[in-house]
From TrEMBL:
Classification of source organism: unclassified sequences, metagenomes, ecological metagenomes
GO molecular function per UniProt: 3'-5' DNA helicase activity; ATP binding; ATP hydrolysis activity; DNA binding; exonuclease activity
Pfam families: UvrD-helicase, UvrD_C
Species name: hydrothermal vent metagenome
UniProt name for this protein: DNA 3'-5' helicase
UvrD-like helicase C-terminal domain boundaries: 490-754
């Protein structure tokens, strides 16, 4: 095909571009998998009938943007010279073929890139559900519940179920579950929220026929035990012969001596297997090296004891046997009690009620979450419910499917893909191309299951058996980094794959010869620290950064941590050393000083009596009162501080500078306070911020981004009628402050996935992650449809049941293996050098369940000579009051900055906006003949001056009458099942509101109402052209957004009732 260079996997890469076959490709870090995926996508485009028949999917919007950029860049590059060699020439040639095909068939892909079907898995769900209307609606719900809205929905569902506790049908079961939790309502709500947030993982399992019957529960546990014993027996047969059991027979311990041969594989044999495990393994799980009288081997049987230890010592390399013996103590008990079965049924009933209440709440709020969309998509694809036409539609339309990062697939996503390809057959021309790296599967918290990659690799999916390909050439890292990582992870990762536990064997990489090797210095450096030496560790990080930049002033440096709170000391140290850095989603919005000031201003304007908020506003830089002046204004519990700002008797008590600053603040805010309720709050807040001097012209790039993010937050809260302090604060907790771009980047390991840097620094390796919460019910499906369930312990139980602990043990094993993969992701980001930093605990040992514990076999000796002198904490500088040195009144500021702003005209614009909203509300309610009193009252509500009510009353009635008389009226407002008014969508990080949306004769119409009037002397044609210029771009954005969501042709138009015209935007 044209690949060149020193690559050990050249044949594999060329075969991956055989578009007649299906493949699953394992591509380790730095192997160029995205480029390979792009090349196959281009080749498919060059040979397909329509670009829509080739779908490429991944799991994040960022990844979609990257691949789309790669494809379009490749197409654009065809206008330049052909590269001389290597993968770039391959990509160029493929892109040239696509351009030729595009010209031949009139696709115009560069002019119409939306024909490229590159999307997230959620985008696929949207395509499916758009073909499957629910309850006769165009779309079931418009608002995507995320973050705080999603948690609020889950919590509301839990509270509504608790409200049913006094009802006969369900009340007793709810009461029993609550009693099981010690009547702790908060705990009940928290556990329900946790379960609803992953309901797609248990809804399809928990309510199978008879799954909660006592006999089935016991049988499931028994099957798990038997399967383990069968596996253990196979591992043990070659290792334990007659001599071994004869030597056990000399033990003075009757239990040990009583094991005369290899036990069987029935539940009753478990105790004997446990005896063998206790004899061979230490409490820590390693092979035993000594036997004593306590084990039943006194001095008198020294010879036999030595021989027995020799047998045990010969098992040193039998890792599978050691693990299987060690796991015996974690197996579930097989004697489920009736009480456990009963509480499981009660919990299942309560959870079912919670799901029902959640769906009711979603319907009321016109919301949904990603889980519901996924569940609806799976339902639409399920032929058992009679809508297999969806699957047939996709089967016809989709000819080639490519999926990136396949190792991150969840069970529900896998089910969707499997159903979608249910009718695909080998040889029908359809192909599947899966790319991923199981060693980089680090999203278990999102329910991704790395075992699914192994399952498809070994057994296929649906009717397809993709050919497995493995890449090994690393184009990213130097030879030293590659070989160092190989040595570490070859010894760390398990030797064999294990699907259920998420164990992945290591696949070695080979450095590409064209990657330039750095200096001969050590490329992987380990920095050991004693307990609580976090400041020393931070200084070492800063030193490593300085060293890296000194060697390569243009090089990139990344500081990667497991959790954000590991960065506090490091950020302070970098700031103290004047090192400019970019923190990627590290600082929460609520912790940024500007965001805090804006939040204080918001609280103060929402509640004039909020004393603390007003004191914060007065202290903020836009006013900057000193403490003595604040004490004067806060004197008196009953006084409203804002009202005191206009009382001369109070203001005169302030310092001379304080009086000037207070009068300035009052002057800036009096119009805003006086017009509360007349206009949208976000408009008033924006006006207030600008009046106080925080205009776009004076804010830094980061401050401007924070201001925009905060105002967008307020807009969203107000739009959803949740403009309250608690909601705003909750929203701020889930948002992060932007940061300036810099060479040195601070981020979590998860955020670094897919990126690369010259130098990578990984501190905090000895810190433990937060412990996972215990869910109200644990369940897991094993082979042969064996489902094990267990409830959390009750308030009176000392410990959880054996089944619950076994399921928890399986989770901990999966966490353990994922921590290996997390470390692998972090260390493979480096091109030329790596710095690893970690500290032991107070006992001088490496803490368990840390990333450092995984590295101890390789760097443990480094702790032998560490300096254990504790950190010395330097006194922190006292924060000084920040305030504007010079206060400018709005008039002076306008003159000084050269801005031309007419604030009276600005308030007139705000009023007309409120008037338009009023007309929209009449449209939404289909109230076209309101009474004069009704219109008058509504005008008063929005703050219309009394002298102008009569005039504006006439305007509103005229606009509604024009609409009613318009020939387009019946078409615009007739009853349709598909029709929506004020439809809210979340698109590409933006919330958009569409005034009216409906399907007519197979076309989706997007209508935007505009109550604007003709200017004096303006001709109708000029008016129409003005509206197209002012609003066309926005309408075309709406059109593009709807085209992504719905599989209908989309047309859009403005409707202007003042001139009775429908103005289509094309």
């Amino acid at each position: 095909m044209g690949f060149e260079g020193d690559m050990n996997d050249l044949e594999q890469r060329e075969r991956a571009l055989d578009i007649g076959g299906s493949f699953i490709v394992q591509a380790p870090a730095g192997a160029g998998k995205t480029e390979l995926l792009t090349q196959r996508y281009l080749k498919l485009l060059a040979n397909c009938a329509d670009p829509e028949s080739v779908i490429a999917m991944t799991f994040t919007n960022k990844a979609v943007e990257e691949m789309t950029h790669r494809v379009l860049s490749a197409l654009k590059s065809t206008g330049g010279e052909r590269p001389e060699r290597g993968h770039k020439r391959v990509t160029y040639d493929l892109a040239m073929a696509v351009v030729g095909r595009s010209d031949e068939r009139g696709w115009d892909l560069l002019g119409n890139p939306r024909r490229l079907k590159i999307s997230t898995i959620d985008g696929l769900y949207g395509l499916i559900t758009s073909r499957y209307p629910v309850a006769g609606q165009l779309v079931p719900r418009q608002i995507m519940a995320e973050g705080r809205d999603r948690v609020r929905a889950y919590r509301t569902a839990a509270r509504r179920v608790l409200g049913l506790i006094d009802e006969g049908e369900y009340g007793e079961g709810i009461a029993r579950v609550l009693l099981h939790l010690d009547n702790n309502v908060g705990k009940f709500e928290g556990l329900v929220v946790q379960m609803l947030s992953k309901r797609d993982q248990w809804l399809g399992r928990l309510y199978r026929d008879n799954v909660l019957d006592l006999g089935i529960l016991r049988d499931s546990a028994r099957r798990i035990v038997l399967e383990h014993l069968v596996c253990l027996s196979e591992l043990a047969k070659p290792c334990f012969d007659g001599e071994f059991f004869a030597l056990m027979g000399v033990s003075s311990d009757e239990g040990v001596a009583g094991v005369e041969g290899l036990p069987g594989c029935e539940v009753g044999d478990l105790a004997k297997w446990q005896v063998i495990a206790n004899l061979c393994l230490t409490g820590a799980g390693g092979w035993r090296r000594t036997l004593t009288k306590a084990n039943g081997f006194p001095v008198e049987v020294k010879e036999q004891k030595e021989r027995l230890l020799g047998v045990i010592g010969s098992l040193e390399g039998r890792e599978g046997l050691r693990v299987a013996l060690g796991d015996l103590g974690n197996l579930p008990e097989v004697d489920f009690s009736q009480g456990q079965a009963d509480i499981l049924k009660d919990i299942a009933t309560v959870l079912k009620l919670c799901v029902a209440q959640l769906n009711m709440y979603f319907e009321e709020q016109q919301m949904h979450d990603f889980i519901e969309v996924a569940l609806n998509a799976n339902q639409a694809l399920d032929s058992q419910v009679g809508v297999s036409d969806i699957a047939l539609f996709l089967d016809y339309k989709v000819q080639h499917l490519l999926i990136d990062e396949f190792q991150d697939t969840s069970a529900s996503q896998f089910n969707t893909l499997e159903k979608m390809m249910g009718e695909w057959q080998v040889g029908d021309g359809k192909t599947l191309f899966l790319v991923g790296d199981p060693m980089q599967s680090i999203y278990r918290f999102r329910e991704s299951q790395v075992g699914l990659f192994l399952q498809v690799r070994d057994s296929g999916i649906a009717q397809l058996r993709p050919v497995s390909l493995v890449l090994e050439t690393n184009f990213r890292s130097s030879q030293g980094v590659v070989e160092g990582n190989n040595e570490i992870f070859q010894g760390m990762f398990p030797r064999e794959d294990e699907v259920h536990q998420g164990a992945i064997a290591y696949s070695q990489s080979t450095a590409n010869a064209q990657v330039i090797e750095g200096t001969q210095e050590q490329v992987i450096t380990f920095h050991p620290f004693a307990d609580d030496q976090y400041l020393l560790e931070a200084r070492a990080v800063s030193g490593a950064v300085k060293s890296a930049l000194a060697k390569d002033a243009c090089g990139t440096v990344a500081i990667l941590v497991r959790t954000r709170n590991h960065l506090a000391d490091i950020t302070r140290q970098l700031e103290g050393d004047n090192i400019v850095f970019e923190s990627v989603d590290i600082t929460r919005l609520q912790h940024h000083l500007l965001a805090r000031d804006l939040f204080s201003l918001t609280k103060a304007l929402l509640h004039l009596g909020d004393k603390l908020a007003w004191l914060s506003v007065l202290r903020a830089p836009w006013c900057g009162l000193v403490l003595n002046d604040l004490l004067v204004l806060s004197d008196g519990d009953e006084e409203v501080i804002y009202e005191q700002l206009n009382v001369e008797e109070v203001v005169s008590k302030l310092s001379e500078e304080g009086q000037r600053r207070v009068r300035h603040l009052h002057h800036c805010l009096r119009e805003v306070v006086g017009n509360r309720g007349r206009f949208d709050f976000v408009e008033l807040l924006t006006y207030a911020i600008n009046q106080l001097g925080y205009t776009n012209a004076v804010l830094s790039e980061v401050e401007l981004a924070i201001k925009d993010k905060f105002l967008r937050l307020i807009y969203d809260c107000e739009r959803q009628q949740r403009l309250d302090v608690e909601t705003i604060q909750s929203a701020m907790e889930s948002l992060y402050a932007p940061s300036e771009s810099a060479q040195v980047k601070l981020m979590t390991i998860h955020q670094s996935k897919g990126l690369e840097f010259d130098t990578v620094i990984i501190p905090g390796l000895g810190r433990r992650p937060r412990s996972a919460d215990s869910p109200i019910i644990r369940l897991r499906e094993f082979s042969n449809d064996c489902l094990l369930l267990a409830p959390v312990k009750s308030a009176v139980d000392a410990e959880d049941s054996g089944a619950y602990n076994y399921l928890k043990f399986i989770e901990s094993k999966q966490d353990y293996f994922e921590s290996m993969r997390l470390l692998y992701v972090a260390m493979t980001r480096a091109r030329s050098s790596l710095h690893l930093l970690g500290a032991v605990n107070k006992s001088g040992n490496v803490a368990k369940n840390t990333l450092l514990a995984l590295l101890e076999p390789f760097f443990g000796h480094s702790f032998d000579d560490i300096d254990k002198t504790p950190d010395t904490v330097e006194s922190s500088a006292v924060l000084q009051l920040q305030r504007f040195a010079e206060l400018k009144t709005p008039v002076n500021r306008v003159q000084a900055e050269g801005e031309r702003v007419d604030y009276r005209q600005n308030f007139e614009r705000l009023f007309k906006s409120a008037l338009g909203t009023l007309v929209h509300q009449y449209y939404e309610r289909k109230l076209f003949n309101p009474s004069v009193d009704n219109v008058r009252n509504r005008l008063i509500e929005i703050g219309t001056p009394p002298s102008e009510i009569g005039y504006w009353q006439g305007v509103v009635l005229r606009l509604l009458d024009n609409t009613k008389r318009d020939v387009q009226f019946e078409w615009l407002f007739k009853q349709r099942e598909s029709a929506r008014s004020e439809a809210i969508f979340f698109v590409n990080g933006r919330t958009i509101a569409i005034d009216r949306l409906f399907v007519d004769e197979g076309v989706l119409w997007v209508i935007d109402f505009k109550t604007v009037e003709l200017n004096e002397g303006e001709l109708l044609d000029a008016f129409i052209e003005r509206q197209r210029e002012q609003h066309g771009k926005q309408l075309l954005f709406y059109k593009a957004a709807m085209s992504e969501i719905y599989d209908y042709p989309v047309r859009c138009a403005l409707y202007c009732p003042s001139v009775s015209r429908l103005i289509e935007i094309v």
